[in-house]
Amino acid sequence: MRAGKPMWTIQNVVKTIVGLVIMLHAQSPFAEERQITFSPKNHCLDNNDNFSQDGRFLCYDTRGSVEPAIGNCRTIEKVEIATGKETILYQTTEFEQGDTPYPGAGAASYSPVEDTVIFIHGPVKEEVAVRGTYAKNNRTGAEVPGDGSGKITWVDKRDIETSRDTIPGAHRGGTHRHEYSRRQAHRLYLRRFSPATV
Q1: For the chain, which residues make up each domain, given as ranges?
Q2: Model pTM?
Q3: pLDDT profile of the chain (198 residues), mean per 10
Q4: pLDDT tens per residue across span 148-157
Q5: Fewer Cβ in 10 A, N or C end of the chain?
Q6: CA separation for the pair 52, 56 (Å, rounded)
Q7: Which DSSP state fits 49?
Q8: Helices first, then strands: H and E counts in the chain
Q9: CA–CA gap between residue 117 and residue 108 (Å, rounded)
Q10: Alpha helices in 28-167 (DSSP H)
Q11: 3-state SS of 23-40?
């Protein structure tokens, strides 16, 4: 708690009451389980923040059961809980599937404060010759808006050149599960980078 900032603001009290009402309703005998999606593909909820900030949508990836599962995944999607309408948020355009796939995308998380989804992403086709194919130690973070436009933003900086020192602020290894901070104005990354800066 910060000095001079009250812990029990109106906003915090309202959030607490709404959370309790939802929790009590979910535990009531009247709450029923129901299927939301019916399309013939996997809808994988990673153990991240899958609900949108308004609680209307769930984000997920469509990885299959063939390993590497995320490496073979081509889409990040959302489903509207009330209607079951599915929307593709991001789809790889150039890809290879199988034992040595690229790029791969998965483990999606919704922002708690805006309509954006963050996820892990493997190397794109142009990078495969230098970086290699999808692997846990060869992936980065990406973010897309929740409107389905597919506009991708890279959220961390990679430096795979080994003949010199690493660029300050970059990393050589792969990243794992990107999630937004619970602090509304703060993200887990400091700056956004485009692939051209790496």
Answers
A1: 38-198
A2: 0.74
A3: 58 68 60 87 88 94 85 95 96 91 93 92 89 85 95 83 80 75 49 40
A4: 999 999 888 7
A5: N
A6: 6
A7: -
A8: 2, 7
A9: 6
A10: 125-131
A11: HHHHHCCCCCCCCCCCCC
